[in-house]
Amino acid sequence: MNESKEPFKNGDLQNTVAVIQSAFKDKNTLYYMEIGEVQRLQGPSQIPNSTQNLLAADQLVSRWELTTSDKLRRSFSGASSYVLSEGFSSEYDPKPYEVTLLSQTLALNHLSQGRWDDAMVEAKKMAQREKVIEELIQSKVAAVSKVEREQQANPNTQAATSRIENISGYPINLLDDEETRSLKNSYQNPAAYYLSGFVHESQGEASLAAPGYRLAIELRPQVNFFKTSIAKLDSNIANRSKKSFADTLIVIDTGYMPKIIPYQISQTFNIGGNSKLITLTFPVIEKSTERFRPSLIQLGDRVANPELVANIDAMARKNLRDDMPAYVLRASSRALVSLAAQFAADRAAQQAANQRNQNNQNNGTAALIGAIAGMITGYSLQAINVTDVRHWSTLPAQTYMARMGLPIGPTVLKYTLPSGVTASQTVNLVGGYNVVYIRMFRSRATILASNDPAALPPKVVTPTPIAGSPTAAPVEVSTAASSSIAQPAQPSGSAMDGLKKLWGSFQDSKPEESAPELPAPTATKTAVSTPAVAQPSTPTPAPASNPNTISAPASSDAPASVNIEGVKPYEPPNLLNSFQQLFN
After folding, report:
1. Element (H, E) at 292
2. pTM of the shown model
3. What whole-number distance in Å separates Cα of residue 212 and Cα of residue 193?
4. pLDDT level of residue 155 (50, 70, 90 thresholds)
5. Pairwise CA distance, residues 548 & 448, whole Å
6. What is the spatial distance between Cα 184 and Cα 137, in angstroms, rounded to a whole number?
Protein backbone atom coordinates (compact mmCIF):
# COMPACT_ATOMS: atom_id res chain seq x y z
CA MET A 1 0.00 0.00 0.00
CA ASN A 2 2.97 2.32 0.38
CA GLU A 3 3.11 2.40 -3.42
CA SER A 4 -0.26 4.17 -3.45
CA LYS A 5 0.90 7.10 -1.32
CA GLU A 6 2.45 9.29 -4.02
CA PRO A 7 -0.21 8.68 -6.72
CA PHE A 8 -2.90 9.44 -4.13
CA LYS A 9 -1.25 12.67 -2.98
CA ASN A 10 -1.07 13.79 -6.60
CA GLY A 11 -4.75 13.00 -7.14
CA ASP A 12 -3.95 10.12 -9.52
CA LEU A 13 -6.95 8.13 -8.35
CA GLN A 14 -6.95 5.64 -11.22
CA ASN A 15 -3.48 4.34 -10.35
CA THR A 16 -4.36 4.44 -6.64
CA VAL A 17 -7.31 2.12 -7.28
CA ALA A 18 -5.08 -0.24 -9.28
CA VAL A 19 -2.56 -0.43 -6.43
CA ILE A 20 -5.27 -1.12 -3.85
CA GLN A 21 -6.76 -3.90 -5.97
CA SER A 22 -3.36 -5.56 -6.40
CA ALA A 23 -2.28 -5.12 -2.77
CA PHE A 24 -5.15 -7.05 -1.18
CA LYS A 25 -5.35 -10.79 -1.67
CA ASP A 26 -8.21 -10.97 0.84
CA LYS A 27 -11.02 -8.46 0.47
CA ASN A 28 -11.41 -7.61 4.12
CA THR A 29 -12.77 -4.58 5.97
CA LEU A 30 -9.71 -2.49 5.17
CA TYR A 31 -9.93 -3.24 1.44
CA TYR A 32 -13.54 -2.08 1.25
CA MET A 33 -12.77 1.11 3.18
CA GLU A 34 -9.73 1.95 1.04
CA ILE A 35 -11.40 1.26 -2.31
CA GLY A 36 -14.65 2.95 -1.26
CA GLU A 37 -12.84 6.12 -0.19
CA VAL A 38 -10.89 6.44 -3.43
CA GLN A 39 -13.93 5.71 -5.60
CA ARG A 40 -15.96 8.54 -4.08
CA LEU A 41 -13.10 10.93 -4.77
CA GLN A 42 -13.28 10.05 -8.47
CA GLY A 43 -16.47 12.09 -8.71
CA PRO A 44 -20.26 11.69 -8.67
CA SER A 45 -20.26 8.89 -11.24
CA GLN A 46 -18.50 6.56 -8.80
CA ILE A 47 -20.57 7.34 -5.69
CA PRO A 48 -22.84 4.27 -6.11
CA ASN A 49 -19.82 1.94 -6.36
CA SER A 50 -18.21 3.69 -3.41
CA THR A 51 -21.33 3.35 -1.29
CA GLN A 52 -21.57 -0.34 -2.17
CA ASN A 53 -18.02 -1.00 -0.95
CA LEU A 54 -18.37 1.15 2.16
CA LEU A 55 -21.58 -0.68 3.09
CA ALA A 56 -19.69 -3.97 2.68
CA ALA A 57 -17.10 -2.62 5.14
CA ASP A 58 -19.93 -1.50 7.42
CA GLN A 59 -21.33 -5.03 7.60
CA LEU A 60 -17.90 -6.42 8.48
CA VAL A 61 -17.51 -3.76 11.18
CA SER A 62 -20.83 -4.87 12.69
CA ARG A 63 -19.51 -8.44 12.73
CA TRP A 64 -16.28 -7.25 14.37
CA GLU A 65 -18.26 -5.48 17.10
CA LEU A 66 -20.09 -8.67 18.01
CA THR A 67 -17.07 -11.00 17.98
CA THR A 68 -14.78 -8.61 19.86
CA SER A 69 -17.42 -7.87 22.48
CA ASP A 70 -17.89 -11.58 22.98
CA LYS A 71 -14.14 -12.17 23.41
CA LEU A 72 -13.71 -9.40 25.95
CA ARG A 73 -16.88 -9.98 27.94
CA ARG A 74 -17.07 -13.78 27.97
CA SER A 75 -14.39 -14.25 30.64
CA PHE A 76 -11.10 -12.89 31.91
CA SER A 77 -9.31 -15.81 30.29
CA GLY A 78 -10.81 -14.83 26.97
CA ALA A 79 -9.68 -11.25 27.53
CA SER A 80 -6.15 -12.44 28.35
CA SER A 81 -6.06 -14.50 25.18
CA TYR A 82 -7.24 -11.48 23.19
CA VAL A 83 -4.52 -9.25 24.60
CA LEU A 84 -1.71 -11.74 23.89
CA SER A 85 -2.84 -13.04 20.50
CA GLU A 86 -2.27 -10.08 18.19
CA GLY A 87 -0.63 -10.91 14.88
CA PHE A 88 -1.25 -11.05 11.16
CA SER A 89 -4.48 -12.49 9.83
CA SER A 90 -6.65 -12.02 6.78
CA GLU A 91 -9.20 -10.22 8.94
CA TYR A 92 -8.77 -6.60 9.95
CA ASP A 93 -9.86 -5.09 13.25
CA PRO A 94 -10.82 -1.48 12.45
CA LYS A 95 -9.44 1.23 14.67
CA PRO A 96 -11.99 3.23 16.69
CA TYR A 97 -11.52 6.44 14.73
CA GLU A 98 -11.88 4.49 11.47
CA VAL A 99 -15.28 3.20 12.59
CA THR A 100 -16.46 6.76 13.22
CA LEU A 101 -15.10 7.98 9.89
CA LEU A 102 -16.77 5.11 8.05
CA SER A 103 -20.18 6.39 9.18
CA GLN A 104 -19.20 9.97 8.34
CA THR A 105 -18.03 9.01 4.85
CA LEU A 106 -21.20 7.03 4.16
CA ALA A 107 -23.27 10.01 5.30
CA LEU A 108 -21.40 12.32 2.90
CA ASN A 109 -21.99 9.82 0.09
CA HIS A 110 -25.73 9.81 0.79
CA LEU A 111 -25.81 13.61 0.91
CA SER A 112 -24.04 13.90 -2.43
CA GLN A 113 -27.03 12.12 -3.96
CA GLY A 114 -29.66 13.99 -2.01
CA ARG A 115 -30.49 11.12 0.39
CA TRP A 116 -30.71 13.08 3.63
CA ASP A 117 -32.78 10.38 5.37
CA ASP A 118 -30.03 7.81 4.78
CA ALA A 119 -27.42 10.25 6.08
CA MET A 120 -29.49 10.63 9.27
CA VAL A 121 -29.46 6.84 9.69
CA GLU A 122 -25.64 6.86 9.53
CA ALA A 123 -25.52 9.62 12.14
CA LYS A 124 -27.64 7.55 14.53
CA LYS A 125 -25.55 4.44 13.85
CA MET A 126 -22.36 6.35 14.66
CA ALA A 127 -23.73 7.37 18.06
CA GLN A 128 -24.72 3.78 18.85
CA ARG A 129 -21.34 2.40 17.84
CA GLU A 130 -19.45 4.87 19.98
CA LYS A 131 -21.07 3.34 23.06
CA VAL A 132 -19.85 -0.09 21.96
CA ILE A 133 -16.35 1.26 21.23
CA GLU A 134 -16.17 2.87 24.67
CA GLU A 135 -17.08 -0.44 26.33
CA LEU A 136 -14.51 -2.31 24.23
CA ILE A 137 -11.75 0.14 25.15
CA GLN A 138 -12.59 -0.13 28.86
CA SER A 139 -12.60 -3.93 28.60
CA LYS A 140 -9.23 -3.89 26.85
CA VAL A 141 -7.69 -1.65 29.53
CA ALA A 142 -8.97 -3.98 32.26
CA ALA A 143 -7.68 -7.02 30.35
CA VAL A 144 -4.19 -5.53 29.97
CA SER A 145 -4.02 -4.80 33.72
CA LYS A 146 -5.10 -8.34 34.56
CA VAL A 147 -2.64 -9.96 32.16
CA GLU A 148 0.20 -7.81 33.47
CA ARG A 149 -0.52 -8.97 37.04
CA GLU A 150 -0.60 -12.59 35.89
CA GLN A 151 2.70 -12.23 34.03
CA GLN A 152 4.44 -10.63 36.99
CA ALA A 153 3.25 -13.45 39.24
CA ASN A 154 4.97 -15.98 36.96
CA PRO A 155 8.70 -16.41 37.69
CA ASN A 156 9.47 -16.73 33.98
CA THR A 157 7.70 -13.49 33.02
CA GLN A 158 8.17 -11.24 36.05
CA ALA A 159 9.95 -8.63 33.95
CA ALA A 160 6.95 -8.19 31.62
CA THR A 161 5.76 -4.60 31.36
CA SER A 162 3.03 -2.60 29.66
CA ARG A 163 4.78 0.78 29.85
CA ILE A 164 6.29 2.07 26.62
CA GLU A 165 8.50 4.30 28.76
CA ASN A 166 10.30 1.13 29.90
CA ILE A 167 11.31 0.36 26.31
CA SER A 168 14.38 2.47 25.67
CA GLY A 169 14.65 3.89 22.19
CA TYR A 170 10.96 4.14 21.29
CA PRO A 171 10.14 7.59 19.76
CA ILE A 172 7.48 8.47 22.32
CA ASN A 173 7.56 12.11 21.18
CA LEU A 174 5.58 11.10 18.06
CA LEU A 175 2.67 10.17 20.33
CA ASP A 176 3.00 13.00 22.81
CA ASP A 177 2.48 16.23 20.88
CA GLU A 178 0.18 18.96 22.18
CA GLU A 179 -2.69 18.21 19.77
CA THR A 180 -2.69 14.51 20.68
CA ARG A 181 -2.63 15.24 24.41
CA SER A 182 -5.62 17.57 24.06
CA LEU A 183 -7.89 14.83 22.67
CA LYS A 184 -10.40 13.28 25.04
CA ASN A 185 -10.21 9.96 23.20
CA SER A 186 -9.36 8.54 19.78
CA TYR A 187 -12.82 7.99 18.34
CA GLN A 188 -15.06 11.00 19.02
CA ASN A 189 -14.85 13.19 15.92
CA PRO A 190 -16.13 16.80 16.23
CA ALA A 191 -16.62 17.03 12.45
CA ALA A 192 -18.82 13.92 12.45
CA TYR A 193 -20.83 15.24 15.40
CA TYR A 194 -21.43 18.58 13.74
CA LEU A 195 -22.39 16.94 10.43
CA SER A 196 -24.83 14.78 12.38
CA GLY A 197 -26.38 17.87 13.98
CA PHE A 198 -26.62 19.63 10.62
CA VAL A 199 -28.36 16.65 8.99
CA HIS A 200 -30.81 16.28 11.88
CA GLU A 201 -31.52 20.03 11.76
CA SER A 202 -32.28 19.80 8.04
CA GLN A 203 -34.90 17.15 8.85
CA GLY A 204 -36.47 19.22 11.65
CA GLU A 205 -35.14 16.97 14.43
CA ALA A 206 -34.14 19.52 17.07
CA SER A 207 -33.87 16.91 19.84
CA LEU A 208 -31.31 14.97 17.80
CA ALA A 209 -29.47 17.96 16.30
CA ALA A 210 -28.76 19.60 19.67
CA PRO A 211 -26.69 16.71 21.14
CA GLY A 212 -24.55 16.62 17.99
CA TYR A 213 -23.82 20.33 18.21
CA ARG A 214 -23.14 20.18 21.96
CA LEU A 215 -20.70 17.29 21.62
CA ALA A 216 -18.89 19.10 18.80
CA ILE A 217 -18.57 22.16 21.06
CA GLU A 218 -17.35 20.02 23.97
CA LEU A 219 -14.63 18.45 21.83
CA ARG A 220 -13.69 21.61 19.92
CA PRO A 221 -14.79 24.66 21.96
CA GLN A 222 -12.63 27.08 19.97
CA VAL A 223 -14.75 26.71 16.81
CA ASN A 224 -17.00 29.77 16.67
CA PHE A 225 -19.75 28.63 14.32
CA PHE A 226 -20.35 25.52 16.45
CA LYS A 227 -21.68 27.81 19.19
CA THR A 228 -23.69 29.89 16.74
CA SER A 229 -25.41 26.79 15.39
CA ILE A 230 -26.68 25.66 18.79
CA ALA A 231 -27.83 29.19 19.62
CA LYS A 232 -29.86 29.48 16.39
CA LEU A 233 -31.09 25.88 16.25
CA ASP A 234 -34.69 26.48 17.34
CA SER A 235 -35.21 29.48 15.06
CA ASN A 236 -33.57 27.68 12.13
CA ILE A 237 -35.90 24.71 12.49
CA ALA A 238 -38.96 26.94 12.94
CA ASN A 239 -38.15 28.77 9.70
CA ARG A 240 -36.55 25.97 7.69
CA SER A 241 -39.46 25.70 5.24
CA LYS A 242 -39.36 29.46 4.66
CA LYS A 243 -35.66 29.82 3.92
CA SER A 244 -35.01 32.03 0.91
CA PHE A 245 -31.30 31.20 0.83
CA ALA A 246 -29.01 28.20 0.64
CA ASP A 247 -27.86 27.26 4.16
CA THR A 248 -24.56 25.65 3.18
CA LEU A 249 -22.08 23.58 5.18
CA ILE A 250 -18.65 23.44 3.54
CA VAL A 251 -16.51 20.41 4.46
CA ILE A 252 -12.84 20.50 3.40
CA ASP A 253 -10.50 17.52 3.82
CA THR A 254 -6.78 18.16 3.48
CA GLY A 255 -3.49 16.39 4.11
CA TYR A 256 -2.66 12.70 4.25
CA MET A 257 -2.52 10.12 7.00
CA PRO A 258 1.08 9.42 8.04
CA LYS A 259 2.28 5.87 7.59
CA ILE A 260 2.40 3.43 10.49
CA ILE A 261 5.57 1.37 10.17
CA PRO A 262 7.27 -1.46 12.12
CA TYR A 263 10.07 -0.16 14.33
CA GLN A 264 12.68 -2.52 15.78
CA ILE A 265 14.23 -1.95 19.19
CA SER A 266 16.86 -4.08 20.97
CA GLN A 267 15.97 -4.72 24.58
CA THR A 268 17.88 -6.57 27.32
CA PHE A 269 16.06 -9.14 29.46
CA ASN A 270 17.42 -11.12 32.41
CA ILE A 271 16.74 -14.86 32.43
CA GLY A 272 18.45 -17.54 34.55
CA GLY A 273 20.92 -14.98 35.85
CA ASN A 274 22.08 -14.10 32.34
CA SER A 275 21.28 -11.02 30.27
CA LYS A 276 19.86 -11.65 26.81
CA LEU A 277 19.46 -9.10 24.04
CA ILE A 278 16.17 -9.41 22.15
CA THR A 279 14.98 -7.38 19.16
CA LEU A 280 11.35 -6.33 19.55
CA THR A 281 9.11 -4.72 16.94
CA PHE A 282 6.53 -2.03 17.68
CA PRO A 283 4.30 0.11 15.47
CA VAL A 284 5.45 3.70 15.01
CA ILE A 285 3.48 6.46 13.32
CA GLU A 286 5.61 8.73 11.16
CA LYS A 287 5.90 12.46 11.59
CA SER A 288 3.19 14.57 9.94
CA THR A 289 4.02 16.11 6.59
CA GLU A 290 2.20 18.23 4.01
CA ARG A 291 -0.29 19.86 6.34
CA PHE A 292 -2.39 22.46 4.54
CA ARG A 293 -4.82 25.04 5.83
CA PRO A 294 -7.22 26.27 3.10
CA SER A 295 -6.23 29.83 2.28
CA LEU A 296 -9.08 30.73 -0.08
CA ILE A 297 -12.58 29.28 -0.21
CA GLN A 298 -14.96 31.60 -2.03
CA LEU A 299 -18.52 30.99 -3.23
CA GLY A 300 -19.81 33.71 -5.53
CA ASP A 301 -18.73 36.98 -3.96
CA ARG A 302 -18.54 35.59 -0.42
CA VAL A 303 -15.33 34.36 1.17
CA ALA A 304 -15.55 31.54 3.72
CA ASN A 305 -13.49 31.31 6.89
CA PRO A 306 -12.88 27.57 7.36
CA GLU A 307 -11.96 26.44 10.85
CA LEU A 308 -10.10 23.26 11.82
CA VAL A 309 -12.74 20.99 13.34
CA ALA A 310 -11.06 17.57 13.36
CA ASN A 311 -7.45 16.46 13.41
CA ILE A 312 -7.59 12.85 12.22
CA ASP A 313 -3.80 12.62 12.29
CA ALA A 314 -3.90 13.34 16.04
CA MET A 315 -6.75 10.83 16.51
CA ALA A 316 -4.56 8.14 14.93
CA ARG A 317 -1.68 9.04 17.28
CA LYS A 318 -3.99 9.02 20.28
CA ASN A 319 -5.28 5.58 19.25
CA LEU A 320 -1.74 4.20 18.95
CA ARG A 321 -0.79 5.75 22.30
CA ASP A 322 -3.81 4.06 23.91
CA ASP A 323 -2.90 0.71 22.31
CA MET A 324 0.79 0.78 23.27
CA PRO A 325 0.31 -0.92 26.71
CA ALA A 326 -1.10 -3.98 24.95
CA TYR A 327 1.67 -3.93 22.31
CA VAL A 328 4.42 -3.61 24.95
CA LEU A 329 2.95 -6.24 27.26
CA ARG A 330 2.49 -8.66 24.38
CA ALA A 331 6.05 -8.22 23.08
CA SER A 332 7.76 -8.36 26.48
CA SER A 333 5.73 -11.40 27.57
CA ARG A 334 6.51 -13.29 24.38
CA ALA A 335 10.18 -12.44 24.68
CA LEU A 336 10.40 -13.69 28.25
CA VAL A 337 8.48 -16.89 27.51
CA SER A 338 10.74 -17.60 24.53
CA LEU A 339 13.88 -16.87 26.54
CA ALA A 340 12.69 -19.20 29.29
CA ALA A 341 12.12 -21.91 26.68
CA GLN A 342 15.58 -21.32 25.23
CA PHE A 343 17.14 -21.44 28.69
CA ALA A 344 15.37 -24.73 29.42
CA ALA A 345 16.42 -26.19 26.06
CA ASP A 346 20.06 -25.16 26.57
CA ARG A 347 20.08 -26.62 30.07
CA ALA A 348 18.57 -29.92 28.85
CA ALA A 349 21.15 -30.11 26.07
CA GLN A 350 23.95 -29.44 28.53
CA GLN A 351 22.69 -32.13 30.88
CA ALA A 352 22.53 -34.58 28.00
CA ALA A 353 26.07 -33.66 27.00
CA ASN A 354 27.32 -34.13 30.55
CA GLN A 355 25.60 -37.52 30.76
CA ARG A 356 27.21 -38.67 27.55
CA ASN A 357 30.59 -37.40 28.64
CA GLN A 358 30.26 -39.44 31.79
CA ASN A 359 29.57 -42.48 29.60
CA ASN A 360 32.59 -41.58 27.44
CA GLN A 361 30.33 -41.10 24.42
CA ASN A 362 30.76 -38.63 21.63
CA ASN A 363 29.03 -35.39 22.57
CA GLY A 364 28.30 -34.47 18.94
CA THR A 365 24.72 -35.59 19.31
CA ALA A 366 24.32 -33.41 22.39
CA ALA A 367 25.75 -30.44 20.53
CA LEU A 368 23.30 -31.09 17.71
CA ILE A 369 20.42 -31.22 20.19
CA GLY A 370 21.52 -27.89 21.63
CA ALA A 371 21.80 -26.33 18.19
CA ILE A 372 18.35 -27.54 17.17
CA ALA A 373 16.86 -26.28 20.43
CA GLY A 374 18.45 -22.88 19.89
CA MET A 375 17.26 -22.76 16.29
CA ILE A 376 13.67 -23.59 17.27
CA THR A 377 13.76 -20.91 19.94
CA GLY A 378 15.22 -18.49 17.40
CA TYR A 379 12.22 -19.02 15.17
CA SER A 380 9.90 -18.42 18.11
CA LEU A 381 11.75 -15.18 18.87
CA GLN A 382 11.21 -14.08 15.27
CA ALA A 383 7.48 -14.30 15.95
CA ILE A 384 7.94 -11.48 18.46
CA ASN A 385 9.10 -9.24 15.61
CA VAL A 386 5.63 -9.16 14.07
CA THR A 387 3.30 -6.20 14.42
CA ASP A 388 0.22 -5.30 12.45
CA VAL A 389 0.73 -1.82 10.97
CA ARG A 390 -2.25 -1.83 8.61
CA HIS A 391 -4.46 1.25 8.69
CA TRP A 392 -6.94 3.20 6.53
CA SER A 393 -4.28 5.08 4.61
CA THR A 394 -6.46 7.14 2.21
CA LEU A 395 -8.13 9.16 4.98
CA PRO A 396 -7.38 12.90 5.19
CA ALA A 397 -5.26 14.29 8.00
CA GLN A 398 -7.45 17.28 8.87
CA THR A 399 -11.05 18.39 8.33
CA TYR A 400 -12.05 22.04 8.08
CA MET A 401 -15.60 23.39 8.04
CA ALA A 402 -17.49 26.61 7.44
CA ARG A 403 -21.22 27.42 7.34
CA MET A 404 -22.63 30.17 5.14
CA GLY A 405 -25.92 31.54 3.87
CA LEU A 406 -25.63 31.81 0.08
CA PRO A 407 -27.85 32.71 -2.89
CA ILE A 408 -29.84 29.88 -4.43
CA GLY A 409 -28.75 28.56 -7.81
CA PRO A 410 -25.48 27.93 -9.65
CA THR A 411 -22.56 29.40 -7.73
CA VAL A 412 -18.88 29.57 -8.68
CA LEU A 413 -16.66 27.94 -6.06
CA LYS A 414 -13.07 29.19 -6.03
CA TYR A 415 -10.34 27.56 -3.96
CA THR A 416 -6.58 27.63 -3.63
CA LEU A 417 -4.76 24.30 -3.75
CA PRO A 418 -1.62 23.34 -1.77
CA SER A 419 0.39 23.89 -4.96
CA GLY A 420 -0.68 27.55 -4.90
CA VAL A 421 -2.93 27.26 -7.96
CA THR A 422 -6.42 28.75 -7.69
CA ALA A 423 -9.12 26.63 -9.32
CA SER A 424 -12.86 27.04 -9.70
CA GLN A 425 -15.96 24.99 -10.32
CA THR A 426 -19.68 25.70 -10.43
CA VAL A 427 -21.88 24.08 -7.80
CA ASN A 428 -25.65 24.15 -7.66
CA LEU A 429 -27.23 25.28 -4.39
CA VAL A 430 -30.89 24.83 -3.53
CA GLY A 431 -33.13 26.56 -1.04
CA GLY A 432 -32.80 25.01 2.40
CA TYR A 433 -29.81 22.91 3.40
CA ASN A 434 -26.73 22.07 1.32
CA VAL A 435 -23.38 20.35 1.88
CA VAL A 436 -20.39 21.11 -0.35
CA TYR A 437 -17.51 18.65 0.11
CA ILE A 438 -13.96 19.46 -1.06
CA ARG A 439 -11.07 16.98 -0.96
CA MET A 440 -7.80 18.74 -1.73
CA PHE A 441 -4.79 17.01 -3.24
CA ARG A 442 -1.49 18.67 -4.16
CA SER A 443 -2.60 20.20 -7.44
CA ARG A 444 -6.27 19.26 -7.86
CA ALA A 445 -9.42 18.72 -5.85
CA THR A 446 -12.62 16.68 -5.90
CA ILE A 447 -15.88 18.56 -5.35
CA LEU A 448 -19.14 16.88 -4.32
CA ALA A 449 -22.28 18.94 -3.72
CA SER A 450 -25.53 17.70 -2.22
CA ASN A 451 -28.81 18.17 -4.08
CA ASP A 452 -26.94 18.71 -7.35
CA PRO A 453 -29.10 17.36 -10.22
CA ALA A 454 -25.95 16.36 -12.12
CA ALA A 455 -24.98 14.04 -9.27
CA LEU A 456 -28.36 12.48 -8.59
CA PRO A 457 -28.86 8.96 -9.97
CA PRO A 458 -31.49 8.46 -12.69
CA LYS A 459 -34.64 6.64 -11.74
CA VAL A 460 -34.56 2.88 -12.15
CA VAL A 461 -37.07 0.07 -12.43
CA THR A 462 -36.79 -3.52 -11.26
CA PRO A 463 -38.36 -5.91 -13.80
CA THR A 464 -40.93 -8.40 -12.54
CA PRO A 465 -39.11 -11.71 -11.96
CA ILE A 466 -40.06 -14.40 -14.46
CA ALA A 467 -40.83 -17.83 -13.09
CA GLY A 468 -37.83 -20.14 -13.28
CA SER A 469 -35.42 -17.44 -14.39
CA PRO A 470 -32.73 -15.62 -12.41
CA THR A 471 -33.77 -12.37 -10.82
CA ALA A 472 -33.15 -9.60 -13.28
CA ALA A 473 -30.92 -6.73 -12.27
CA PRO A 474 -32.40 -3.22 -12.03
CA VAL A 475 -32.19 -1.39 -15.32
CA GLU A 476 -32.45 2.21 -16.39
CA VAL A 477 -35.41 2.85 -18.63
CA SER A 478 -35.68 5.79 -20.95
CA THR A 479 -39.05 7.38 -21.68
CA ALA A 480 -39.32 5.74 -25.05
CA ALA A 481 -38.28 2.36 -23.75
CA SER A 482 -40.66 2.52 -20.81
CA SER A 483 -43.63 3.37 -22.96
CA SER A 484 -42.96 0.43 -25.23
CA ILE A 485 -42.68 -1.89 -22.24
CA ALA A 486 -45.63 -0.60 -20.30
CA GLN A 487 -48.09 -0.76 -23.19
CA PRO A 488 -48.80 -4.30 -24.36
CA ALA A 489 -48.84 -4.70 -28.14
CA GLN A 490 -52.31 -4.75 -29.70
CA PRO A 491 -53.09 -7.68 -32.05
CA SER A 492 -53.50 -6.83 -35.68
CA GLY A 493 -54.13 -8.67 -38.93
CA SER A 494 -56.93 -9.96 -41.09
CA ALA A 495 -59.64 -12.51 -40.31
CA MET A 496 -57.61 -15.15 -42.13
CA ASP A 497 -54.68 -14.42 -39.80
CA GLY A 498 -56.98 -14.95 -36.86
CA LEU A 499 -58.16 -18.32 -38.23
CA LYS A 500 -54.55 -19.38 -38.76
CA LYS A 501 -53.78 -18.49 -35.16
CA LEU A 502 -56.83 -20.41 -34.00
CA TRP A 503 -55.89 -23.54 -36.01
CA GLY A 504 -52.28 -23.28 -34.80
CA SER A 505 -53.41 -23.14 -31.21
CA PHE A 506 -55.24 -26.46 -31.57
CA GLN A 507 -52.18 -28.14 -33.09
CA ASP A 508 -49.35 -26.61 -31.01
CA SER A 509 -50.85 -26.33 -27.59
CA LYS A 510 -49.38 -28.96 -25.21
CA PRO A 511 -50.67 -28.45 -21.69
CA GLU A 512 -48.37 -31.06 -20.15
CA GLU A 513 -45.24 -29.06 -21.14
CA SER A 514 -44.12 -25.94 -19.31
CA ALA A 515 -44.64 -22.70 -21.13
CA PRO A 516 -41.58 -21.13 -22.70
CA GLU A 517 -40.16 -18.09 -20.96
CA LEU A 518 -39.63 -14.69 -22.41
CA PRO A 519 -36.25 -13.07 -21.79
CA ALA A 520 -36.21 -10.25 -19.31
CA PRO A 521 -36.71 -6.83 -20.91
CA THR A 522 -33.42 -5.15 -21.70
CA ALA A 523 -32.45 -1.51 -21.63
CA THR A 524 -29.46 0.56 -22.45
CA LYS A 525 -27.67 0.55 -19.07
CA THR A 526 -27.42 -1.71 -16.06
CA ALA A 527 -27.65 -0.21 -12.61
CA VAL A 528 -25.35 -1.01 -9.73
CA SER A 529 -26.62 -3.78 -7.48
CA THR A 530 -25.89 -3.83 -3.76
CA PRO A 531 -25.16 -7.34 -2.49
CA ALA A 532 -24.06 -7.95 1.06
CA VAL A 533 -20.27 -7.79 1.25
CA ALA A 534 -20.13 -8.12 -2.51
CA GLN A 535 -17.11 -8.02 -4.71
CA PRO A 536 -16.91 -4.43 -5.96
CA SER A 537 -17.08 -3.72 -9.61
CA THR A 538 -13.99 -2.27 -11.19
CA PRO A 539 -14.36 1.50 -10.96
CA THR A 540 -14.22 3.65 -14.03
CA PRO A 541 -12.45 6.90 -13.24
CA ALA A 542 -13.91 10.16 -14.42
CA PRO A 543 -11.99 12.07 -17.10
CA ALA A 544 -9.21 14.15 -15.71
CA SER A 545 -10.51 17.31 -17.35
CA ASN A 546 -13.59 17.48 -15.16
CA PRO A 547 -14.14 14.50 -12.90
CA ASN A 548 -17.17 15.93 -11.18
CA THR A 549 -19.67 16.57 -13.92
CA ILE A 550 -20.41 13.06 -15.12
CA SER A 551 -23.92 11.90 -14.32
CA ALA A 552 -24.04 9.08 -11.80
CA PRO A 553 -25.03 5.52 -12.61
CA ALA A 554 -28.39 4.32 -11.42
CA SER A 555 -28.71 3.47 -7.77
CA SER A 556 -30.32 0.21 -6.88
CA ASP A 557 -32.60 1.71 -4.23
CA ALA A 558 -34.23 4.40 -6.37
CA PRO A 559 -38.02 4.20 -6.80
CA ALA A 560 -39.50 2.57 -9.87
CA SER A 561 -40.55 5.01 -12.58
CA VAL A 562 -42.64 2.85 -14.91
CA ASN A 563 -45.17 0.04 -14.72
CA ILE A 564 -44.10 -3.16 -16.43
CA GLU A 565 -46.85 -5.46 -15.24
CA GLY A 566 -47.69 -6.16 -18.88
CA VAL A 567 -44.55 -8.28 -19.21
CA LYS A 568 -45.68 -11.84 -18.40
CA PRO A 569 -44.56 -15.36 -19.29
CA TYR A 570 -45.89 -16.66 -22.58
CA GLU A 571 -49.04 -18.78 -22.40
CA PRO A 572 -50.54 -20.79 -25.30
CA PRO A 573 -53.76 -19.16 -26.56
CA ASN A 574 -57.01 -20.84 -25.62
CA LEU A 575 -60.13 -21.09 -27.80
CA LEU A 576 -61.90 -18.05 -26.33
CA ASN A 577 -58.86 -15.80 -26.73
CA SER A 578 -58.41 -16.95 -30.30
CA PHE A 579 -62.00 -16.04 -31.22
CA GLN A 580 -61.55 -12.64 -29.53
CA GLN A 581 -58.40 -12.01 -31.54
CA LEU A 582 -60.19 -13.10 -34.72
CA PHE A 583 -63.07 -10.66 -34.34
CA ASN A 584 -60.93 -7.85 -32.97
Report:
1. none
2. 0.74
3. 5
4. confident
5. 7
6. 13
